[in-house]
Amino acid sequence: MAGEAIPHRHPGGGCRLRAAEKQAIHDHPDRWEQRIAEDICSRGSVCLDGQRRRITDLLEANSRFEQDGRNWRIVEQLRAGDGHSVTLVNDNPDFDGPGAFVECSGDWTEWEVLKFTGDNVDAALGAAFVAFRKWSRDDAGN
Questions:
Q1: Distance of alpha carbon 134 from its chain centroid, rounded?
Q2: pLDDT above 70: percentage of residues in the chain
Q3: What is the edge-to-edge ordering of all strands in the sheet holding 100-105?
């Protein structure tokens, strides 16, 4: 049924059909059912794709929010002792080497400023935290 329009929806809901469309549906109901089903599926697919994108965006934002929270808890643990410090250095992706580093000082570094590197601040903080946890376990054993 090439060139035939699928009944359009009007704001009040339902479909408003012209006389010719009503007659075509009456004469060939199987063709119209298929066309209407295809139209509904294509509209539903577009709607679902939009919802999937929105859900993906929300999950990614939530993941970034959770990572930010983890990073802050790491910083708080690294600087919890008297005089302990953590310096977060701005990411530098143009640098020929790691993209980020943090500097830490405290009794766990024997008061030396140690540099921990990573591709980004998450990785650099993770490296510092691994060293801190190792020191914590070793120190607890003494």
A1: 31
A2: 61
A3: 85-88, 100-105, 114-118
